[in-house]
Every structure is written in structure tokens, then in C-alpha cells.
């Protein structure tokens, strides 16, 4: 049985989609695949109740017969972290619990996929970073990373050193924009491979995997649409409008694929946002309906206006959470990532040497 742990240099790198896509590719090769996420980090509240959708999606897509407490034995909630700081968590016992459930889940499997926490460092306070988990479970490590600038390599090299060259299978760069794709393949990859760090894949950015549509955002926020404008544009980031009109316009013009969040009574900011080509929608807080001139301008520009009742800070937090998690947790996204890995990554280097253990011979009659 082989074990592969998929970790990342930071949060929201597409780690879940890549982990499950590898599972689909392995199943297509006839392998019996298991899954585990030792540290649940996507939680509903600080009380420890988990709503982590990753193991639930894995259970469905990979046809895994297991309970949530097995797939996700450590609920890494704020309450858990506070307890660990106060000495209420026993590191050795936690490791034993993970090992116990891993042994049950991996029985008769050809390949075990282990998904890391928020980043490779998550779990350090209880000696359960992803490097620690890899050592505990004797796993090879695939490190998922973003890349937009050469300075990103500092964090990447630090992660490689923490994981160790003896465990690292290689790097998969995900969501790589066209502007840096050639640089990554012709300069960065050779640089890393010269340091004995294999680059297993350079996966291009896919717009429909990078954000959420305005309609999806409206549905998740429970927003009312104040305009008759198309809602199929993608939003990848949020800008909070809290400055004067001239400063706001300069600020908004420096971005793309953004939603501007501001009070429904801030007409000057709303007008400035509508002048910026990179603004795809307005989210107006406080339950205030904008003046008619703003609605008219928005419809003329084809920019939808969403009305929500919450305050700007809470709406911004909720919207960012939707973008960072919402597009990587559905079957369609995983299937698209399966295609991208097949086309742009060395899947054989990860799972190619594993043979199915449950093949049956043909009848001898």
C-alpha cells in the first residue's frame, strides 16, 4: 500500500481538488483508493462542530465507506487550539488516534490519499504539521503551490526544507496565470530541479475555477438583485469602498474581476466603482437601496448591484470565505481538475508505479 499526502504552501491553493482528482485518476487505473484528512480545519464554529465538506465530498466521489470521525479524527477548531495552548491536548495520544484510524481506512487499499491542513504548517502546536503527519504515516508528499512572482519561492523553499527531500515527491504549481507560465516552466522549474526539487506539474489558471459567479455570490449571501444585469461574470477578489470618490476610483482601477463592497448610502463610492472596468458587481450593505442614478448607471454598464442587510465587515468576511472555498468543493471542479492534472502534470510520477492488488484472474474453465 502506498500513501501520498497532499499539502500546500498556503490556504486556498486548490489542494482539495488536486487530492480528489488524483483519487479519480487512480481509480481509473483500477486502484482501490482510500482517503483521510487528519486535521479538519473548515469548521462552522469555535465549539468544535465540524462542517468540513472535504471528507464528505471524498466519501462520495471515491466511494469510501467510512465515518466522518475516521476520515477526520482531529477537529482543528479554535477551541481545540486554545485547549492545546493550555495543555489539555496530548500530542502522543492525538498521533495514536490518527494512526489508528489510518490503519482502519488503509486496510486492503492500494493507495491512501491524505489531505493536509490549511497549510503545511497547520498543526505545529501539537506536533502535527503535515511534515509530522507524513512521517507518522510514512507518506510521500506532493506540495501544491501558487506562483505569481519570484519572491514566492522563498516560502516554497522553506516548505521543501521542512518536509525533507526524502519525503517530497515533488511540486505541483496550480492556477498559474498566462503572464508567468513561460517563466515558471523555463526558469523556475529548472532552478528547483537543480536543487533536487522535482516539479511534477504546472497547471494553468482556469477562470471558472478561480472564483464564483455573481449569481452564486448573491445566492450564498442571500442578497437581493437591484438591477437587471447579467450575473454570470466571475468574481475573484473584493474591495472595500471606504474612501473619497477620487481616491476610490484610482483604487478600483488597479484591480480586475472584483466586487466592491460598500454601504448602500455611499453614492460617491458606488459611482466611482462603476467607472472601473475591473469591477464586476457592487455589494451594498446596511439594507440601504442606492439612489436611482446609481441603479441606472449600473444597468447601463451591465454591472449587477447586490443588496444585503449585514454590515460591511461581516459581509466582506463572508464573501471572501465563499470565494476561497466555494469553487473547490464540488464534483464538477474535481472532474475538471482531473483533466488538468492529466494534461499538465506527471501523474505517473505520483501513482504510476502502484499496481492494483485485487485483480482477479480469468476463469480457467
UniProtKB/TrEMBL annotation:
Q: Where are the transmembrane segments?
A: none
Give the organism, scientific name: Haloferax larsenii
Keywords of the record, alphabetical order, are: Glutamine amidotransferase
Which Pfam families does UniProt cross-reference here?
AAA_26, DRTGG
**What InterPro entries does this protein's entry cite?**
DRTGG (IPR010766), P-loop_NTPase (IPR027417), Ser_kin/Pase_Hpr-like_N_sf (IPR028979)
**What's the protein here called?**
DRTGG domain-containing protein
> Where does the DRTGG domain start and stop, copy by copy?
216-320
The record's listing under CDD domains reads: DTBS (cd03109)
List the SUPFAM superfamilies hit by this protein, alphabetically.
Answer: HprK N-terminal domain-like, P-loop containing nucleoside triphosphate hydrolases
Q: Could you confirm whether the keyword Phosphoprotein appears in this record?
A: no
